[in-house]
Design goal:
Oligomer: single chain
Strand order of the largest sheet: 2-3-1-4-5
Number of strands: 5
Helix content: 25-40%
């Protein structure tokens, strides 16, 4: 998942919430720009940690705190939902990709998915 920072925020790395098993990491591109991505911990990660981390980032975007938007590839989202035992939503994400409807999801999409499936 890529995280797009707001103009007021130059950098945001580390753990956003304890216990999720995910953090933000900065990566420098060849052109010198810096991008921010989620990274799975090498230690214990709860079964729904990935999904909760994605939702947390989407909520930060919605609340206009630090983040402008997020980009989540459909396969990462589907895996996060499946790991969290949200099978119906996971299958819908897979179907959306198969039907060529959606390959990446932004913060608004994540919050809509959460509401639609009562997650």
């Amino acid at each position: 998942m890529e995280v797009i920072l707001s103009e007021q925020c130059l950098s945001l790395v580390g753990t956003l919430e304890r216990g999720l098993g995910y953090s933000l990491q900065a990566r420098r591109k060849k052109d010198g720009s810096v991008r921010f991505y989620s990274q799975r911990s090498k230690h214990s990660v709860p079964y729904d940690g990935h999904w909760r981390f994605i939702v947390l980032c989407a909520e930060l975007v919605h609340n206009k705190l630090y983040l402008t938007d997020i980009k989540v590839h459909w396969l990462e989202l589907q895996n996060a939902l499946y790991e969290a035992k949200r099978f119906t939503a996971s299958e819908q994400v897979r179907r959306n990709y198969a039907d060529k409807c959606k390959a990446t999801y932004n913060a608004r999409d994540i919050l809509n998915l959460k509401t639609t499936f009562g997650l």
